[in-house]
Amino acid sequence: GPRLSDQLIGFLDVRNKALWGVADYLVMHGGMVADLSSDQAKYPAEYALRDEALARLRQGSIVWGWECHDNESLHVAHASRRGLRVLCSTNCPNLSFLAQVQPQTTEYRQRSPAPCKRPVEKKLYLTFVLSDGDSIPILLTRQWYRWDDPARGKVPFGWEHQPLLADLAPVVFEYYYQTMTDLMRTNTKLIANHAAWNDPWKRQKIEQIRMLLNGSLQAMGKVGLKMNVTRRNLDRLVAVLPSLKAPTISSLHSEDWLAVETIVNGNAVRDLIPLLKEAGAEGIIEYPLSKVI
User: Fold this and answer.
1) Which residues, in sequence order, are bridge partners of residue 130?
2) What secondary structure, in 3-state letters, does 164-194 show?
3) CA distance 99 to 215
4) How far are the Cα atoms of 142, 207, 233 from residue 192, in angstroms, in the given order?
5) Total Cβ atoms within 10 A of residue 124
6) Is 137 in contact with 91 (CB distance < 8 Å)?
7) Which whole number is the average pLDDT over 263-267?
8) What pTM, to 2 d.p., does this model score?
9) How far is CA 201 from CA 9, 148, 191, in A?
10) Residue 244: pLDDT band with limits 50, 70, 90
11) Fewer CB within 10 Å, N side or C side of the chain?
């Protein structure tokens, strides 16, 4: 329907009650929730419905949940063919509640150690990374036991952390951010060799990757808001509406109503939505952002 978000969808095995916390969050944000297989050979009718649902999403949007009575590779491959991202979000606590608990930290920056005077030598470097940090349930459950180990920080290896946790469970993201050790602070760099940089075609692709990465960083901590308002209340609404730029305003089928869309900091939404309602906004939809370019 027209109220469904075009940026998120969830495929959840309804037999698993541990997924209900994810479903609640998706419904709260206008996301479609379905139990449809990605196995075209075994369940062609379900696959067709699933593909139709994926086709209506913007590229780069998020597919939540996990596989539905099929397997991981088919699930990820189907989303990838549509240019969509898969967010492993099984066995999560109630995300609709956690997303509303606001942290004290309002801005996150990559914290870097002091510049190292040791020269970079021409040799093979080996990096160790604790994986599965892209999985929301891992960060909300099992990762805590590893993170709170007194030995953490004594061995220099990396930890994966899903940036979307800043929106889905801000206080948990804040805890990881505030308790990381100096060994874990890094500089974000995009590296290309001279041969690739001097090739015009490859250089163009590298610049595109840089633009998309910067867009993802800019989107961290921000959400989109959609709402409807009468022309009579538009000025009242805009007066309380923060935005990166002026909000987007478009006419609806009824001449008396307008659609308003804007981008705001996620930590302001809890206090902002009641003010928008008081200013005359109706049908308010909050949705996550993957990129701001």
Assistant:
1) 159
2) CHHHHCHHHHHHHHHHCCHHHCCCCCCCCCH
3) 22
4) 36, 11, 52
5) 5
6) yes
7) 83
8) 0.61
9) 34, 46, 16
10) low
11) N
- pLDDT of 129: 81
Residue 125 corresponds to which amino acid? Y
Cα 68 to Cα 84: distance, rounded to the nearest angstrom: 17
Take residue 25 and report the two structure tokens written for it: 């969050």
The CA dihedral of 133, 8, 225, 227, to the nearest 10 degrees, is -160
Letter string b/e over residues 31-43, b meaning 16 or more CB atoms within 10 A of that residue's CB: bbbebbbbbbeeb
**H-helix segments, the chain:** 20-28, 44-55, 72-81, 95-98, 136-140, 142-147, 165-168, 170-179, 194-198, 200-219, 234-239, 269-278
C-alpha closest to that of 94 among 140, 63, 50, 60: 140
List, in order, residues 6 or more apart from 110 with CB less than 8 Å away: 185, 186, 187, 188
Q: Fill in the amino acid letter for 217.
A: L
